[in-house]
Amino acid sequence: MAIRGEFSSRIGFVLAAAGSAVGLGNIWGFPTKVATNGGAAFVLVYLLLAFVLAYPVLMAELIIGRSSRSNMVDALGNISGSFIGRATGIWGCITVSLILAFYAIVGGWMLVYFADSAVNMVGLQSASDWLLTYSVTRNIIFCFIFMALTAFIVVGGVKSGIEKWSVRLMPTLVLLILALIVYVSLQPGASDGWSAYLVPDFTRILDPDLLIDAMGQAFFSMSLGVGTMLVYGSYLSKKENLPTIGASVALVDIGVAVIAGMLIIPAMYVALHNGVEIFTPEGALIQGDSLIFKVLPALFDTIGGVGVFVAFTFFALMAIAAVTSSISMLEVPVAYMVESRGLVRKKAVVLMAAIIFVLSCIIILNFNALFGFVIALTTEYSQPLLGLVLCIFAGWVWRRDTILAELKEGDANAEQSLFWKIWPWYVRFVCPVIIALMFYRSVF
């Protein structure tokens, strides 16, 4: 059996896990949810729910991963001692592969706009026209480039691939966001955006839709339920204090979402000041892909010669956010192929990347029918249910003395800690109920 990889440092793990959590959802989903759900009131609810709901599930994944030292399928199989655990692990691998299949398409679009800003710098108008014309060929080419980039990093393994690149990419991501915040905040109209983002509307705080939105954002932004944190946890040193390191990951993820809001919302109001439409006919702020590919490029066009450099920086930032998430997703099925199926890492990476790229191509060729369907199937249905099952495994199936023994590896006094007094019953009773209610509300 091959020697398993391990993160060489705490900062390497935190940046890799936070990179997994910090994806496009933090940057294009979170800010507009804040602005349309009562500003800072939403941020407060989100922060509360991130620690009330997402952190305990994150801890379940990290503890299961580090204790089992294995991929999702073997880890859950060992805990349950039955076929049900392995089946759940395979379901997680399939879900994360489907998420990566649509994510790679969107990551490809980020590369398209990044390439467009690069060719605009040197005045290649015909190349820009080709890049910005929606076509199946363009989408497949850039999806392939995105998957190749992801596979290139994952082939390097834990230390020389995932950790090495996360430690480079995550600080770059934060610096780019901060530089753009400074630039955007100096533009006319930005102050209106700051007040939309930071002034709380407390009348909205108990609105069920706001609570569902905040809960969903907290859960999905930490990429929970699909085994990415479980697999990263399995590469973590036994010396680390798990509750502390889990809190670090949660804080970095939340922090990036909050500073992304400080960039996106003021930028939208600068766009409004410059004559760009930022509201839907119903009066809500435009969000998602329309925000990233219509509103912001229109803004960059209105700010003169410097716009092309701002666009270049912004889409570099978006591409980095996409890649730091995609490497963790690809690692989930790769770890299974290497450990359970005995494949060499390089072969496992190429095989899984090829399968996921084929799935992406199928979605691209049947875009209207499949794109929205696959997103809903994975993120609205499969992911919360997997999170629910993980809580049941951690709270009801797994022996409590085994969990405590794992926590004591990194903290000899774990039994006396506040974490141990709250987490075991919390993940047993509270988390499953909250997740089940959230799932019921979002589906019905």
UniProtKB/TrEMBL annotation:
<keyword id="KW-0472">Membrane</keyword>
<dbReference type="InterPro" id="IPR037272">
    <property type="entry name" value="SNS_sf"/>
</dbReference>
<dbReference type="GO" id="GO:0016020">
    <property type="term" value="C:membrane"/>
</dbReference>
<keyword id="KW-0813">Transport</keyword>
<feature type="transmembrane region" description="Helical">
    <location>
        <begin position="135"/>
        <end position="158"/>
    </location>
</feature>
<feature type="transmembrane region" description="Helical">
    <location>
        <begin position="170"/>
        <end position="190"/>
    </location>
</feature>
<feature type="transmembrane region" description="Helical">
    <location>
        <begin position="348"/>
        <end position="375"/>
    </location>
</feature>
<dbReference type="Pfam" id="PF00209">
    <property type="entry name" value="SNF"/>
</dbReference>
<keyword id="KW-1133">Transmembrane helix</keyword>
<feature type="transmembrane region" description="Helical">
    <location>
        <begin position="210"/>
        <end position="233"/>
    </location>
</feature>
<dbReference type="InterPro" id="IPR000175">
    <property type="entry name" value="Na/ntran_symport"/>
</dbReference>
<keyword id="KW-0812">Transmembrane</keyword>
<feature type="transmembrane region" description="Helical">
    <location>
        <begin position="425"/>
        <end position="443"/>
    </location>
</feature>
<protein>
    <submittedName>
        <fullName>Sodium-dependent symporter family protein</fullName>
    </submittedName>
</protein>
<feature type="transmembrane region" description="Helical">
    <location>
        <begin position="381"/>
        <end position="398"/>
    </location>
</feature>
<feature type="transmembrane region" description="Helical">
    <location>
        <begin position="12"/>
        <end position="31"/>
    </location>
</feature>
<feature type="transmembrane region" description="Helical">
    <location>
        <begin position="245"/>
        <end position="272"/>
    </location>
</feature>
<feature type="transmembrane region" description="Helical">
    <location>
        <begin position="303"/>
        <end position="327"/>
    </location>
</feature>
<feature type="transmembrane region" description="Helical">
    <location>
        <begin position="43"/>
        <end position="64"/>
    </location>
</feature>
<feature type="transmembrane region" description="Helical">
    <location>
        <begin position="90"/>
        <end position="115"/>
    </location>
</feature>
<dbReference type="InterPro" id="IPR047218">
    <property type="entry name" value="YocR/YhdH-like"/>
</dbReference>
